[in-house]
Amino acid sequence: MSEQAQDRTVLKVTGRDRVDLLQGLVSNDVKKLDQGLVYAALLNPQGKYLADFFLVPSEEAILIDVKSDLAAGLMQRLSMYKLRADVALEATEIAVVRGLGDAPEGAFADPRHAALGWRGYDLKTDTAPVDWDALRVSHVIPETGIELHSDSYLLECGFERLNGVDFRKGCYVGQEVTARMKHKTELRKGLVHILLDGKVETGTEITSNGKPAGVVHTVSGNQAIAYLRLDRVGPDMQAGGVKVALA
Predict the structure, then answer these.
(1) pLDDT less than 70: residues of the chain
(2) Following DSSP, what letter does each residue of 45-84 receive, concatenated?
(3) For FRET with 200, which of 62, 100, 108, 224 sits at 20 to 30 Å CA-CA?
(4) CA-CA distance, 166 to 186, in Å (whole number)?
(5) Domain boundaries 2-129+142-183, CATH class
(6) Would the pTM of this model clear 0.85, i.e. be above it?
(7) What does the pLDDT look like over 190-206, one tens digit per residue?
(8) In the chain, where does the domain assigned CATH 3.30.1360.120 lie?
(9) By the 8 A CB rule, do 66 and 119 touch?
(10) DSSP letter string, 179-241
């Protein structure tokens, strides 16, 4: 099963300084491109999320597979950082295909989780729709613009589990805050998999013993991804009058 992802844009980064530029900016190790796709994020200096994307190995280039509504802003920010580096940036018409099952030649395994299958670029698709939301909820995979937004911190959103951050690669924008959250604090908030005893809309507040505890994000059937205060997880959680429990 596979389909073309209509909401993705592929940017192309060329020039002899392309690896060095990206290595100093993104949360993961760009040198892992020799192993396949690299999932990474760009942060602001305060360690908060700006964009997440896949870096894709390509001949004499690095491709960036990003949500389309973030593409222009990402291009602008990368252009600001490149200064006089030998780097060129351009948007392409490359189509993103994603699927499950046996990967076709030229496709790459999704590095976030084996259940997410593979991604390919300008490959043929059999246009068999996949319920990606159900897969994401089951494995707590955050989505750009839903679970991931301008107030998000990578570790609260599971980027370590999703192979989206490297703690040995050296400095990048927002690295200090991310490293401090990893080594000096215990996470008090984060994304979790919940069960719902009824119908709940995305964005509904979760309470615990009447106190604010979090928010429901992606919903799939009677399950959802929620952002919760972990110290308020308990047996009396509700969302819009519907009972909530950890999955």
Answers:
(1) none
(2) TTSBEEEEEEEEEETTEEEEEEEHHHHHHHHHHHHHHHTT
(3) 100
(4) 18
(5) alpha beta
(6) yes
(7) 999 999 999 999 999 99
(8) 2-129+142-183
(9) no
(10) HHHHHT----EEEEEEEESS---TTPEEEETTEEEEEEEEEETTEEEEEEEGGG-STTEEETT
